[in-house]
Amino acid sequence: MFRKVMPYLLVFALCGCKTEPSQKENPQKEIKVAFMADIHFADVYPNLDDSDFKGIYDSVQNRSSLLRTMNAQLHSTRLFNENYFAFFAALDDAVAKGIKTIALPGDFSDDGQPLHIKGLRKILDRYAGEHDIEFFLINGNHDPTTPFGDEGGKSDFLGANGKAQPLMSEVGKYRANEEYQNPTQVVTDLKEWGYADMVQELRNHGFFPKENYLFWSTPFSEYSVEEYTFEKAKTASDLARRNYRLETSEVLLPDVSYVVEPVDGLWLLALDANVYLPKEDGGFSGAGIGYNEVLTHKKHLIRWTENVVKEANRLGKTLIAYSHYPMVDFNDGASKDIAALFGEKAFQAHRIPSDLVGETFADIGLKVHVGGHMHLNDTGVFTTKKGNTLVNIQSPSLAAYVPAYKIITIKNPTQMEVETVVLDEVKGYDTFFGAYEREHDFLASHFDDEVWEKDILSTASYLDYTKTHLQELVRLRFLPSDWPEELVQQLLNHNGWELLTASNSEEKIKAELQKEELTIEDFSSWQGMDLIVDFYKFKNGDELAKRDMDSQRLKGYRFVLKKWSEHTENTALKQFAVIFKKQMEGEPAVNFSIDLKTGGLLRN
After folding, report:
1. 54-107, pLDDT tens digit by residue?
2. What is d(CA 51, CA 46) in angstroms, rounded to the nearest whole number?
3. Distances (CA, A) of 336 to 325, 329, 331, 536
4. How many whole angstroms separate alpha carbon 372 and alpha carbon 400?
5. Is the pLDDT of residue 227 over 90?
6. Cβ 582 vs Cβ 333: under 8 Å
7. SS3 20
8. Best label site of 38, 40, 378, 382, fewest CB within 10 Å?
9. Torsion angle (degrees, nearest 10) of CA 579, 371, 83, 96
10. Threshold 0.90, pTM exceeds
11. pLDDT for position 28
């Protein structure tokens, strides 16, 4: 196994005998890197000249758009349309801050479709050319969805008449239901690209070396740092040289991991943690699990990471690893409690990295990793029995609540500062509200039991829009699929005061409220559904959720949760209180510093 890999890894490692000691303490200029995870870019203004479907014409904009339905968005953990504008807002904000290095840790596309990858490439090329920005992409489970590509399409694009519009990459792939869908049409560029086509289209943005990079290498490169030349890197970057073999298959699978030095002193380690396993009936499984499968099926990636860490230390480089998947549990210590209350498969439990993942990467010396995939803001810290610490920074998605990106500033060889930039305002986020009005009218007149709440079309900002999206997602998807019916019934249709006094003496509670400077109104003013939605705000936003909550409401929540966790005989409420409290009390996750020597965090 890995016969091709090991000799190359040894070359990278053995060059350590040649030069000077590790971690030079020379003063260095601050370096800033932005991380924008899970942008899920879909080109809403693509060129459809060669397609049957021409999009929805907007007379105000004087252009046609390609949109997914609002109904589809409100059943998904991400937006499909408005994140287009959010991406521009994030890029413009980074430009205004003078940031010249931007990393995209996976799921940079909808599903790796040529239509969207080509649109993304044009935007990256434009910002690179106009603002001297270097982009460094690494793939996620949506790019690509399968290693060698496949036909594709969606049944829930939006038609001009408000009906869903199925669009497929080939004829005969989908038969529309005329009751609520328009006839299926063909857009060939909605097929799903595999690795080769995708990375070739994006070749100027990290996947291949460029002459201005100070260093670039892959797990399969045959040169040492001292032997590096651009020509050698070009040869090593050939995709035919960048593959590995599973123990259970003879098929060679791509691995487009790379390490790059874009500016003096900084190494960015982009890890392709996608694992595709052959299915018995042909094809490959999706790659949504991440590092739990890397441990067993991509061991060469761990060995290479260890050697990159050693080289970075030897040469005095500051190393930041990033990939699509988290390396540390992202539930603030509540994963076991969540499984006990909601079930072993709830809340995407299969995507939680095991402790062995954190232990493995911490003990090979990795200190900082930025991940995505989960569409949440979080910081996880894992310290091993050997005393090694790994800090995992979860960068939120621009396409979900809380829409934000991370900036890491390297202050000196032993300190990093992390900043979280929230996209409160996004120009153009309401561009398609008129089209959604027609969709809502169609559903209301034909399927009123399935219609979504129109309030989302009255939101005043992009942040507000994502909050309402989350609220509808909870109502339409999360409560029916993840929550025990008993707990739902206990929480819904009751206000906070009723929930608080259901198992506590009112007189005793009133006396305690006076001491806490709380009133009955601080509880009667909110409903059980508000509590559930705000729970998800903390789950997704961590400390950022506090920006969107009244301090008195938050104080009331803490009082209720304390009562439930200490005194209630209701097991489900007690378990929920424990989980909610842990989600409210995690590691610093907004603006903080990392001590690279100790792994310690300090809120800024």
Report:
1. 999 987 788 999 999 999 999 999 999 999 999 999 999 999 999 999 999 999
2. 11
3. 20, 11, 9, 17
4. 12
5. yes
6. yes
7. coil
8. 382
9. 120
10. yes
11. 60
